[in-house]
Amino acid sequence: MLVGDLGEFTLIDRLAARLHPARPDVWVGIGDDAAVIGSSGAGDLVFTIDTMVEGVHFRADTASPWQIGWKALAATVSDIGAMGAVPKVAIVSIAVPADTPVGMLAELYDGLSASGEFHRTDIVGGDTVRTDGPVVVTVAATGECATGQAVRRAGARPGDVVVVTGTLGDSAAGLALLTAAKGDITSFAKLVERHLQPTARLREGVLLAGAGATALIDISDGLVQDAGHLADASGVGIEIRLDQVPTSDALRAAGEVLGVNPGEWILAGGEDYELLATMNDESARAAQVRLSRDEGAPLAVIGAVVEGNGVRILDAAGKPLSVPEGWDHFAPPV
Ligand code: ADP
Ligand code: MG
User: How many A from CA of 126 to the centre of ligand 1?
Assistant: First the structure.
């Protein structure tokens, strides 16, 4: 059965049936002109939106519809976490050709639903339109944080340390493994999963905000690029010691199998959705202790905020390295 055989409203009903809203503060979900969400009235609202286009953000031959759905929601709520806020609800817009199989969209909605359950974000509405172009999936989400407590990209101060959650480069390594199509990649399932089914560091975002993060950003475009955004917004320079950046054993093994220096994945690979923050040294140590106690992702100190501007990557001896750029949709060709 194709989308064109069903009609918009039957399709919406079929897709809505795949979702499993669970939040008690959603008064009105899918089926009315708009959703109605209960509010405590105490905190600040945080809003964000993310769009994924077939051929640009995902490829039907490497990602299943379920994974596309999962990732679209994860990427959006990661931005909420990167403000130190907690997501609540999301709305989803899909633009699809009429000859799209309904089963493909049903699977995509199962992925959205599973991701929503995992990230405790209900999908409360959306929009469904026809296109003659590629499939486009847009997820907007709203979340909450205590009044005035959202952590911005601006706020890093010289003397702060730079910290990062988890390990970097895994998603880019997973993508390289998927597209290289050489050898057996089953032993690298974790890396591939980090690319196709990433999770947002929501708990870590709240904890970093509470621990006194002066600036916070999620790493969606690559460490150098996103550290650069933070540095620009804060009007400071950032120095990162490459040897201090945490990486997985699997990443290094994948580098050997593919004959690639993993440095590029670590520095320029996007979509790890780890959090990068700045804070004073003492707060960083306290956050490390709290994260390990709460079974959050490990937190590593990878550098320092300095006077000046831009991002410098240093080797173990403190010597500057030349570095690759991250992902920029409209970067001029070089
Ligand atoms: P309207 O014409 O008032 O904008 P629609 O017919 O577009 O309403 O949508 C009807 C209901 O279904 C609304 O609650 C809307 O949020 C929801 N909806 C529409 N498309 C989607 C979708 N792709 N995913 C989830 N909910 C959707
Ligand atoms: Mg309406």
Answer: 5
